[in-house]
Amino acid sequence: MSPELEKKLTNRFPFYTGELIRYGFPGDGWFQLLWDLSEDVEECLDRDPIEDFEVVQVKEKFGTLRYYVSHGRDDIYACIRRAEARSAKTCEECGEPGKTRPGGWILTLCDRCHEEREEERRQSWEEYKELQSKDPTKT
Predict the structure, then answer these.
(1) What's the CA gap between 63 and 4, in Å, rounded?
(2) pLDDT score recorded for residue 8
């Protein structure tokens, strides 16, 4: 996620403290999903505040969102589960409908972003093979 979008989240929602997205996301596609989740969590906290509540980590793992909080409870965990399920159907790059894609790294991507990533992988592989054919010690 871009630093600008991360800053929008941390400026708007006080329960984001410290570095929000330590391990990053491939793109900005989950920004709206995170914004919606943050609003849902905020509503839960407005109804019934939790002292010292904070989001401690947000990341992508196995192609879906992971969202870890301190001092959670059932209503907040339900919001998180819904967002995590939604992330499995939302492209991490652009936010369009997507699906989980296997490979070296499992990601959730739309068809267009998946094809772009596959083309980048093919080009890298071709460059590697060309380098190998010229000088096998350069790998």
Answers:
(1) 23
(2) 93
Dihedral angle over CA of 14, 17, 19, 21, nearest 10: -50
Contacts of 10 (CB under 8 A, 6+ apart): 16, 20
Amino acid (one-letter) located at 117: R
Does 127 score more than 90 pLDDT? no
Report the Cα 110 to chain-centroid distance in Å. Answer: 14
- For the chain, state the CA radius of gyration: 18
Q: What is the pTM of this model?
A: 0.86
C-alpha span between 101 and 111 (Å, rounded):
10
Question: Which helix (H) or strand (E) element contains residue 56?
Answer: strand 54-61
Give the span between the Cα atoms of 36 and 30, in whole angstroms.
Answer: 10
- Among 92, 98, 117, 107, residue whose Cα is nearest residue 32: 92
